């Protein structure tokens, strides 16, 4: 049943790559609805002892939008058993055995996979019906989830692979002033971040091939941060919508009055009219030489393919960056 109108734009990649800001900027287009990290939604809002805040200001249990979505989800799946869906979801999206399970399902669908697929499709469908948007943006980031959606013939899927220089990701996870509410901040070990960056980007690059080349786009965080308008125009070209003029001087020109994102970082609580898109290249001044060398030794071969340089001093347009952009579709 291809072409049934369930258009999903899925953003994938490693974490700490600026996906929440991109998500918010995209949703300022009237035909796009951003949902944040939808993969975390059941755990944030439908599980008994979790009741996260929605970007609209209330909690998920009290938010009229998500209450209506949940009701519709139950009707569509014929069940109100969110806990059951929550046991199926990580098995296909998170666990080490997830890839094996997903690839096997390409050839022969198991009842568990079909149930997981129906449950996920029902969330998208319920949001589309309640919110009334043409496109849903799911910034769950995990490549396994993207791969599973690509296997659903009812979903018209667009894939965006968002890449950020791994040294920027490393610094973002090491910054001494970083605070997570309620938890003391422990800097992530650079080796682990490098391994994670390679793995997430290789998986994303591989999953990109599961949709037609006209329906996929690679974006670099640095290019988005320096010139958000140009990046949004490229996304507009991808989906066949005019997305020009959404950002001027780093600010949204047509702020949404209310968003209902539940996953993603604290940026989602900033009112659209107060959002300022800023480039964070602080690693260039702060990351220690030994950590730069470590990253390049292990991941330079992949970083180079995305247009990054070993001796990166700034971002803008270098010949290799231009090549990466030209080859990114
Ligand atoms: Zn809400």
Small molecules in complex: zinc ion
Rg for CA atoms: 19 Å
In angstroms, what separates the terminal alpha carbons?
Answer: 26 Å
H/E series: EHEHHHHHEHEHHEHHEEHHH
Put simply, the count of helices is 14
Question: What is the number of beta strands?
Answer: 7
Q: Which architecture would the CATH scheme give at its second level?
A: 3-Layer(aba) Sandwich
CATH class: Alpha Beta
Outline the low-pLDDT stretches.
325-329
The percentage of residues in β strands lies in 5-15%
- Class by SSE composition: alpha/beta
Biggest sheet strand order reads: 2-3-1-4-5
Whole-number tally of structural domains: 1
Let me know the CATH homologous superfamily: P-loop containing nucleotide triphosphate hydrolases
List keywords for this structure.
329 residues, disordered C terminus, single chain, two-stranded antiparallel sheet, binds zinc ion, five-stranded parallel β-sheet, 14 helices, alpha/beta, 46% helix, Rossmann fold
What does this structure look like?
- With 329 residues, the protein is an alpha/beta fold.
- It has a single domain, classed as P-loop containing nucleotide triphosphate hydrolases (Rossmann fold), CATH 3.40.50.
- The chain is built from 14 helices and seven strands.
- Strands 2-3-1-4-5 form a five-stranded parallel beta sheet, with helices on both faces.
- Strand 6 and strand 7 (251-252) form a beta hairpin.
- Helix 4 (82-93) crosses helix 5, helix 4 (82-93) crosses helix 6 (111-131) and helix 7 runs parallel beside helix 9.
- The radius of gyration is 19 Å and the shape is globular.
- Zinc ion binds at residues 54, 56, 58, 63, 65-66, 260.
